[in-house]
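Saturday, quiet lab. Running sequence design on the C-alpha cells for the scaffold JK sent over.
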C-alpha cells in the first residue's frame, strides 16, 4: 500500500499543486484549491492499462472511418449541435446547472435512439429507477424500452457496458461515479477526471457512444468542466436563455463538428421540444414603440440568428458614468462610444450607458456594431427605429462601416423573418436582391445616423 499524502487540485482548471495556495497558479482563480488524497500512481496506471487493448499499426487508407457514420437521434436540435448526429465511439460531456433539464434531454435522446433501433444503457447515480421511470412517463417519447442501471461504481458500469455493448451509454452524472482504484470521494477532481478518462477509453474500445452529464453550479462545476474538456470529444452546455422555459444547447468544443453551434428547446410538461426557428424566439417579445432597440444578424456557429440589442442612455447622476453590458463586450462598447463621440459628435461623457442583448444571447462578433450604434443613437435622441429594419456591419476607428462575413446568409435570414430594410456597409452591398429586402449601403456611422434621424 502506497503512502497516502495530500495533493491540491484547482476545481476550476484541474491544475495540481503540491501545497495549498489561496490563488491557483495556473488559472489565477481564488480559493479554488481543494485537498485530495495523493494517488498511488503506479497501481492506478497498471489497473488502467489492463483494460487497454494493444493497438496495431494500420494503413490509413484501410481505416473505415467511423467518424463518417452517425446515428441521428431524431431530436433535430440535438443532432444539429452534435454536428449531424451521434458519432459511434465518441464521448460527449453535457454540462449545465442542476434542474436545467440535462437528464430530461438525454432520456429523450435515449428513447429516440431506441425507436431508431439502437440499444442504450442509462446509468444513474442521481435518481432511482422509479424516479427515472416517472420522468419517462411524462415524456412524449416512449422511453420504456431504455435499459436502466442504478450504479455509481465505475467498475460495475464498465462491466455492464462491456457485456451489453449498448450503442449509447448515458452516465448521469459523472460527479456521482467513483472508482475503487482511487482514494477519495465521488465528485473530487481525481475521481471525476480518472472516471471520465476510463469511460473515454471504453468508448474507443467498444464503439459505444458515451454521454456524461456534468453539473455546473453558479460558482463553477463541483470538479470544474475545464478538467474534463480535454478528455471528451464534444462539450455541450445546456443553459437558460433568459426567457422562461427556453433552453439553449451550445457546443463549446466539437471534434466532429463546428463549435459554438446552438440549438434551442422549450421545456414543456411532456419534455423538451425543439424550437425550430430560434430567430423567432429571440425576437418574439420585441419592444416596439420604444427608443434604443435595434436588430442585428449574428452567426452563431454556422447558423444565422437575428437578435435584438437594447441600449439605454441616461443622465449620469454622479462620478464617472456607468457602462453596463449584458451579452455584449464592454471593451467593444467603450470603443463604439468613443467612435460615436469623435466621428458623429454624440457626447456620452455625462451619460450612463446600459446595453442588453435580448434572450440571453452573447454576442462575440463585431458584425453587430452597426446595430448597437443605431440603438445607442436611438436612445440618445429618444427616437425609435423602424421595427422592420436590420443593421449589419463592423465599425472601424475612423467611423467607417466595414464589410462582414457571410452577409448574404444574414440578409436571407432577415428576409425570411419578415424584415423590410437592411442597412449594410456600402462596400458590401450584395449584387443579388434578397427577397423583398430594401438594402441600403452606408459608408460611415455619421451617414448611418443621418439616414436614420436626419442631419
Ligand atoms: P431535469 O432533467 O431533472 O434537470 P437536470 O438533470 O439538469 O437537473 O429537469 C428538471 C426540471 O424540468 C424539473 O424542474 C422539472 C422540469 N420538467 C418539465 O418541466 N417537464 C418534463 O417533462 C420533465 C421531465 C421535467
Ligand atoms: Mg438530472
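Result came back. Writing it out in full:
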Amino acid at each position: 500500500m502506497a503512502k497516502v499524502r495530500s495533493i491540491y487540485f484547482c476545481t476550476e482548471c484541474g491544475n495540481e499543486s503540491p501545497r495549498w495556495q489561496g490563488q491557483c497558479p495556473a488559472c489565477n482563480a481564488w480559493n479554488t484549491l481543494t485537498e485530495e488524497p495523493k494517488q498511488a500512481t503506479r497501481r492506478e496506471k497498471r489497473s488502467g492499462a489492463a483494460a487497454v487493448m494493444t493497438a496495431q499499426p494500420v494503413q490509413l487508407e484501410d481505416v473505415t472511418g467511423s467518424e463518417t457514420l452517425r446515428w441521428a437521434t431524431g431530436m433535430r436540435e440535438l443532432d444539429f449541435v452534435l454536428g449531424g448526429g451521434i458519432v459511434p465511439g465518441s464521448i460527449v460531456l453535457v454540462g449545465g446547472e442542476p434542474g436545467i433539464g440535462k437528464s430530461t434531454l438525454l432520456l429523450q435522446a435515449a428513447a429516440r435512439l431506441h425507436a431508431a433501433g439502437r440499444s442504450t444503457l442509462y446509468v444513474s447515480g442521481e435518481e432511482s429507477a422509479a424516479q427515472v421511470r416517472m420522468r419517462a412517463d411524462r415524456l412524449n417519447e416512449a422511453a420504456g424500452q431504455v435499459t436502466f442501471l442504478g450504479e455509481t461504481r465505475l467498475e460495475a458500469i464498465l462491466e455492464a457496458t462491456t457485456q451489453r455493448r449498448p450503442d449509447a451509454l448515458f452516465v448521469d452524472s459523472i460527479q456521482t461515479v467513483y472508482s475503487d482504484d482511487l482514494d477519495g470521494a465521488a465528485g473530487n477532481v481525481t475521481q471525476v477526471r480518472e472516471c471520465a478518462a476510463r469511460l473515454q477509453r471504453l468508448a474507443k474500445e467498444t464503439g459505444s457512444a458515451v454521454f456524461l452529464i456534468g453539473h455546473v453550479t453558479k460558482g463553477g462545476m463541483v470538479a470544474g468542466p475545464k478538467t474534463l474538456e480535454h478528455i471528451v470529444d464534444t462539450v455541450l452546455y445546456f443553459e437558460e436563455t433568459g426567457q422562461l422555459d427556453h433552453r439553449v444547447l451550445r457546443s463549446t468544443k466539437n471534434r466532429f463538428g463546428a463549435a459554438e453551434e446552438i440549438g434551442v428547446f422549450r421545456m414543456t410538461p411532456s419534455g423538451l421540444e425543439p424550437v425550430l426557428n430560434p430567430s423567432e424566439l429571440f425576437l418574439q417579445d420585441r419592444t416596439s414603440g420604444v427608443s434604443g432597440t435595434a436588430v442585428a444578424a449574428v452567426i452563431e456557429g454556422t447558423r444565422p440568428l437575428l437578435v435584438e440589442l437594447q441600449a439605454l442612455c441616461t443622465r449620469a447622476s454622479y462620478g464617472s458614468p456607468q457602462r453596463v453590458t449584458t451579452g455584449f463586450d464592454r471593451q467593444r462598447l467603450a470603443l463604439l462610444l468613443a467612435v460615436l463621440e469623435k466621428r458623429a459628435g454624440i457626447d456620452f461623457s455625462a451619460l450612463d450607458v446600459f446595453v442588453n442583448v435580448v434572450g440571453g444571447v452573447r454576442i462575440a462578433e463585431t458584425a453587430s456594431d452597426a446595430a448597437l450604434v443605431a440603438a445607442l443613437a436611438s436612445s440618445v435622441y429618444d427616437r425609435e427605429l423602424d421595427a422592420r429594419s436590420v443593421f449589419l456591419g463592423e465599425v472601424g476607428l475612423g467611423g467607417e462601416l466595414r464589410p462582414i462575413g457571410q452577409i448574404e446568409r444574414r440578409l436571407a435570414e432577415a428576409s425570411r423573418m419578415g424584415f423590410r430594410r437592411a442597412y449594410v456597409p456600402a462596400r458590401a452591398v450584395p449584387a443579388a436582391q434578397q427577397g423583398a429586402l430594401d438594402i441600403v449601403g452606408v459608408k460611415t456611422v455619421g451617414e448611418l445616423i443621418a439616414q436614420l434621424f436626419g442631419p
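Notes for JK: Confidence is low (pLDDT under 50) at residues 42-51. Residues 70-275 form a domain with the Rossmann fold fold (CATH 3.40.50.300). Ask whether to fix the surface positions before the next round.
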